Amino acid sequence: MELNYGIIGTGAIGGFYGGFLAKSGKEVNFLFNSDFQHVKENGLKIDSSTGNFHLKQVNAYNKSEDMPKCDVVFVCLKTTTNHILKEMLPSVMHKNSVIIMIQNGLGIEKKLAKEFPDTSIAGGLAFVASSKIDKGHIAHYDYGSLTLGFYQKANDEVLNQVSIDLNNAGIECNCVEDLNLARWKKLLWNIPFNGVCVVLNAKTKELVSNEESRKLVSDLMYEVVEAANHCGAPLKTDAIDEMIDSTFKMKPYAPSMKLDFDFKRPMEIEAIYSNPVQEAKEAGYDMKVTSTIEKQLYFIQETYK
Amino acid sequence: MELNYGIIGTGAIGGFYGGFLAKSGKEVNFLFNSDFQHVKENGLKIDSSTGNFHLKQVNAYNKSEDMPKCDVVFVCLKTTTNHILKEMLPSVMHKNSVIIMIQNGLGIEKKLAKEFPDTSIAGGLAFVASSKIDKGHIAHYDYGSLTLGFYQKANDEVLNQVSIDLNNAGIECNCVEDLNLARWKKLLWNIPFNGVCVVLNAKTKELVSNEESRKLVSDLMYEVVEAANHCGAPLKTDAIDEMIDSTFKMKPYAPSMKLDFDFKRPMEIEAIYSNPVQEAKEAGYDMKVTSTIEKQLYFIQETYK
């Protein structure tokens, strides 16, 4: 089955996955914002730890209305701009399109499903260290895998083909049955590190090097596990110590929320903090520590402008 | 009964209460650190909202060994230097001296009592906005009352006389039966405002003006009430809304811990956070939100040097 792809938001994530698919010969239609003119003239550059490449000509668009209908749409925007999807997506969708939300946090597909109740919607969890370092220029530092799972109106045939296409393009991709569990698993790292790095103005390494902040990271992880289990995601505590140790061994790293804060972009507080806190509360569990970080982040976002 | 007084630590608190007592004609012996020579030559100045005064000659000392024995000793150091008391106090004490710990937090008298098991030990809660603005120069902005209560070997006659002496000197002072309750009452304000002002780099007004940080302040207050009740202090939640409202009406205020942080002095994390968290834990209650702030403060103290 030959699929064509649309990338909504060609930044560190969309540029990376879309770039690899395009390089492997797939039809990929990229939506750009401010980089459009530059990419139209100069193409898209990917500096990857697996080898650099330059796509001299890419299907670049600056309006979704100009894009062709796509079998698979990767939504790679920040969750803070998801409110534009309701208007933007219909022009790139046909009846059987699969929308894949490659974003952090929780409650993302649920919100989209309210707006598109008859559409195949999946989620994607990107485990990749990459960033946009210049116009049409993505740097890939480490990792790269993608985990996919359906939220509504599963179309396994298409999702399996996406996985095959990505693997053929050199990206490790796997499909899971339980998207909810996959999202909570990712929150296990994102909830402690994203927000606390902002509140304490630190990188990951500092948080796990100091005894007290390491305890705070661990408290948050145990709380995420407890919340996940209340929300039907059978997450275990086994991974916690290893996850902290491996973060200690990583290069000092500024998580995406810390970068957003440093560059004065809106932070994904709702998706990464408020939605999990709210879902847990509805399931009868009070994420007290997470909710403390959540409130601090909102204060910081509204005050440090 | 005529009492003589010793002031261990003549700063914003010790200078204020000791200054008023000296002005009223009581014998007050002040221990100074770096201000000693200046006060010896120029005396002690108090700019008070109730009227300014200048004590041209005061009993100033720079070593406790040189001080006379005192009937009543006000300990007005920061809790972070309490480790020096074991060596320092004996020279100013006679058999019936009363030591009054005018400090913030919890567990202060307990620690001193281990070192001085046979001494009359009381606690004092200062409700005063004052600061040392220059050598031997204290500014008093607002409030001023002092609450006293015994921790061990109560000597009510002396404590009542202290209260009378202070009231005669123009200071509102009252004695309470339940020092533990008085300390938890004060923590109801200190736990939310001292630490969160440091973590979020804000003054009180900002914290209660922003919806999310105001919720955090409220969460912390409810947690303090719950902890207090587990620790035998029948604190009520009634005062919470009014306390937040009155803090909103106050001038923007930097609590003592925020000043300590800004001037790179050690913060009183142990007395204001760790001791309450620990006592509550021993009583079976986990102060999750307070403990989050505690860990953040230790990280900040160790990292932002």
UniProtKB/TrEMBL annotation, chains A, B:
Residues 178-293 form the Ketopantoate reductase C-terminal domain. InterPro entries: 6-PGluconate_DH-like_C_sf (IPR008927), 6PGD_dom2 (IPR013328), ApbA (IPR003710), KPA_reductase (IPR013752), KPR-Related (IPR051402), KPR_N (IPR013332), NAD(P)-bd_dom_sf (IPR036291). Its EC number is 1.1.1.169. SUPFAM superfamilies: 6-phosphogluconate dehydrogenase C-terminal domain-like, NAD(P)-binding Rossmann-fold domains. Pathway: Cofactor biosynthesis; (R)-pantothenate biosynthesis; (R)-pantoate from 3-methyl-2-oxobutanoate: step 2/2. It is an enzyme of class 1 (oxidoreductase). Residues 6-151 form the Ketopantoate reductase N-terminal domain. NCBIfam families: apbA_panE, PRK06249.1. Belongs to the ketopantoate reductase family. PANTHER family: 2-DEHYDROPANTOATE 2-REDUCTASE, PROBABLE 2-DEHYDROPANTOATE 2-REDUCTASE. This is 2-dehydropantoate 2-reductase. It comes from Plebeiibacterium sediminum.
